[in-house]
Amino acid sequence: MRELASFVMQSLVNAIGVAGLLGALSFRFLPLSLLSAAVVGLIALRKGLWDALIVCAGAAVLVATAWLINFRPCFGFPVVVALWLPMFACAEVLRRTESQGKALMLVALFAALLVVLMHLLTGDVVAWWKAWLKQAVTCVPGATVQGFERNDTLRLMNGLVATAFGISLMASVLLARWLQSLLYHPGGYAAEFHALRLPRLLLPVIVAVLLAVGGLDKGVLVDLFMVSVMMYFFQGLAVLHGVVAARNLSWVWVLPPYLVLPFAPQYVLMGLAVLGAMDSLIDFRARAARG
Predict the structure, then answer these.
(1) How far is Cα 23 from Cα 37, in angstroms, rounded to an integer?
(2) Sign of the CA dihedral running 125, 131, 134, 140
(3) Are 198 and 245 in contact (CB under 8 A)?
(4) What does the longest C-alpha to C-alpha distance in the chain come to?
């Protein structure tokens, strides 16, 4: 990865080529969209917003060309574009504040805006996602809309998409920061991630907002709650890594969530979110450092 980061930083042409190629390949292997967004974020973190815009514009031409050549009817637009655009703001906040917590708050704000806009623009998000799924399942062998209806996933679809968007965007931001640290500040990423922390007063504010929204629309309440879980999941993950580092424990202690995540993501997300929320009140990392 260090060699990739070094190649990207040699010139904007290299960055455009890598971001565009990864974005195009993400049509076949979606996780590559995270790496493509991270390349854009790396340029934004190191060279600033305008250079990142140039890279994004050039890469968009490559992605659009690949999209037209190999159009996939199950998606309305290249998913990678949804990560590039908010990446500018998140990377700029991280570059100016050097606080991953503030970048995470902005990520959560984008995810919450997605939730609210979908409710406002569609009128009935469940019906909208059902219509979208009828088209999308054609790309997944054996998948049916009825499968989503039977396990009640369809009702949660809006919140799930917003949560997945938030996780993907924050993962791209962290990946961009890690690539930057490999070249310019070896070892600096770990210390910054271990210090990731949301403001203590944010938790009661979120609770108050959820209570207020719950009196108006239960669907919006559920969706925003899922976005809140996503936000505190990252703080919980930082707590886990920070405590292990503070106590000089083996890296094996951080493995269980990563091993369980692919099989039971809901339990890992909720468990680490609870840990992150409790950390806002108890500050486990400070206690571990004193111990």
Answers:
(1) 8
(2) negative
(3) no
(4) 59
Reduce the DSSP state of residue 197 to 3 states and report it. Answer: coil
d(C-alpha 287, C-alpha 246), whole Å: 9
pLDDT tens-digit profile of 123-150? 889 888 888 887 776 666 556 666 666 6
Q: Give the contacts of 121 (CB within 8 A, at least 6 positions apart).
A: none
Determine the length of the chain. 291
Q: Which of 93, 117, 88 is nearest to 105 (CA)?
A: 93
The closest of 72, 227, 205, 214 to 158, measured between CA atoms, is 227
The Cα-based distances of 223 to 29, 49, 116, 119 in angstroms read 27, 31, 9, 10
Name residue, tokens 């990560």.
83
With CA atoms as reference, report the closest residue to 273 among 166, 188, 173, 152.
166
Contact (CB, 8 A) for 210 and 221:
yes
pTM, whole model, 2 decimals? 0.93
Which strand (E) or helix (H) includes residue 81? Answer: helix 79-97
The residue with tokens 């917590």 is 101
